[in-house]
């Protein structure tokens, strides 16, 4: 294992390896949780080298990568205050039942009025718009999001700064999934809005003659993109907005909520499980290679196996938002100020809880081992 950079080791809460990545799921209004996570990580002096995001995760990632370190949290806060400005804080009366009804009403308001600085309803419903027109392909217009991004992101810094950015989208016509990555190309507001263009609510985005939809249609987590391109020892903070585990539903609204959790979290679990399985298999190959006689060192097949089994250490730290029962299945498009503040605070709390148990991760990093952690259970 390569030694962690002394500069980082001296100013962070963990003995950081060569590279640190943030991975942001999609999840609409729940994205404020990611902002809280980033704020708390920044306060611990953990420097981020790479951010990969899908949908709202791409928006948060762009704001972080597209600003100087001292301005990132303020820009995130500005964005989230804009998109929740139509639904200000309300007094919480009557316990969880009251909060559940407020959630439903807030989500209904969003469905009818849109979200400031994000998307607005089309004047003409798509069923009445001319075929093949932009208005025929979605219920909302995302022009406000482009304006908001331009006001919150320095695109030159995003493309030329110290943080690598990757955002995922799916080609409408071919169905192929891809990542737009500042390591290979210049990104702008189109790439971010494409990553969050969830149909049929939001319209596809054209980039260089191709049309793109929300990457969450295919995969709601960009973890595999980061791991597939890993070239150094790596620490990943995987910030998930939907939990894989949950209670048995009791109502039809619970069913809607639980189905969404499973649908959007399953890919994360699959990628993590596959990572650990492949690592174990490579470890077995390395042990077998170590037992071979020196006379086989130059054998082409042995050389191929040696290349296949070579790897860098990776530690994946899961920070998972676990919704309360009163949030229901509409929580990802309930853009109220109360909910935003709640999600933001939960993100901060998740980092604090993880750091309390950070010795487990630290030991693994120092020893050059690979593991996945969820320390907020």
From TrEMBL:
Biological process (GO), any one: lipid catabolic process
Motif GXSXG mapped to chain: 53-57
Protein's UniProt keywords contain Hydrolase: yes
Domain (PNPLA) ranges: 22-227
Placement of sequence motif GXGXXG: 26-31
CDD domains listed in its UniProt record: Pat_hypo_Ecoli_Z1214_like
Catalytic center residues: 55 (nucleophile), 214 (proton acceptor)
Annotated Gene3D superfamilies: Cytosolic phospholipase A2 catalytic domain
Keywords from the UniProt entry: Hydrolase, Lipid degradation, Lipid metabolism
MF terms (GO), sorted A to Z: hydrolase activity
Short sequence motif DGA/G: positions: 214-216
InterPro entries xrefs: Acyl_Trfase/lysoPLipase, DUF3734, NTE, PNPLA_dom
One Pfam family here: Patatin
Positions in coiled-coil regions: none
PANTHER family from the UniProt entry: BLR7027 PROTEIN (PTHR14226:SF57), NEUROPATHY TARGET ESTERASE/SWISS CHEESE D.MELANOGASTER (PTHR14226)
Protein name: PNPLA domain-containing protein
Lineage: Bacteria, Pseudomonadati, Pseudomonadota, Alphaproteobacteria, Sphingomonadales
């Amino acid at each position: 294992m390569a030694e962690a950079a002394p500069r980082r080791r001296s100013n962070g809460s963990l003995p950081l390896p060569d590279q640190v990545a943030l991975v942001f799921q999609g999840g609409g209004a729940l994205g404020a949780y990611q902002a809280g996570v980033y704020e708390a990580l920044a306060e611990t002096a953990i420097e981020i080298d790479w951010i990969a995001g899908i949908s709202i995760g791409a928006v948060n990632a762009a704001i972080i990568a597209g600003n100087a370190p001292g301005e990132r949290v303020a820009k995130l806060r500005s964005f989230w205050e804009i998109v929740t400005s139509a639904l200000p804080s309300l007094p919480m009366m009557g316990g969880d039942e009251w909060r559940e009804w407020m959630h439903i009403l807030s989500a209904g308001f969003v469905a009818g009025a849109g979200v400031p600085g994000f998307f607005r309803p089309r004047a003409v419903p798509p069923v009445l718009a001319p075929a093949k027109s932009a208005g025929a392909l979605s219920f909302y217009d995302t022009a406000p999001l482009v304006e908001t991004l331009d006001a919150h992101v320095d695109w030159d810094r995003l493309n030329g700064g110290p943080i690598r950015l990757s955002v995922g989208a799916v080609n409408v016509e071919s169905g192929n999934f891809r990542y737009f990555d500042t390591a290979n190309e210049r990104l702008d507001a189109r790439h971010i809005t494409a990553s969050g263009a969830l149909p049929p609510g939001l319209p596809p985005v054209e980039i260089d003659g191709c049309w793109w939809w929300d990457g969450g249609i295919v995969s709601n987590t960009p973890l595999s993109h980061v791991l597939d391109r890993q070239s150094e020892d790596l620490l990943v903070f995987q910030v998930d907005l939907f939990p894989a585990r949950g209670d048995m539903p009791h109502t039809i609204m619970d069913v809607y909520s639980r189905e969404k959790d499973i649908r959007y979290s399953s890919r994360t679990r699959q990628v993590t499980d596959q990572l650990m399985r492949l690592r174990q298999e490579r470890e077995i190959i390395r042990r077998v290679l170590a037992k071979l006689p020196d006379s086989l060192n130059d054998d082409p097949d042995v050389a191929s196996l040696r290349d296949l089994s070579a790897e860098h250490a990776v530690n994946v730290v899961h920070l998972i938002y676990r919704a309360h029962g009163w949030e229901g299945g509409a929580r990802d498009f309930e853009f109220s100020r109360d909910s935003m503040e709640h999600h933001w605070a939960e993100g901060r709390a998740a980092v604090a809880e993880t750091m309390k148990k950070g010795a487990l991760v630290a030991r693994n990093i120092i020893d050059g081992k690979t593991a996945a952690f969820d320390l907020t259970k």
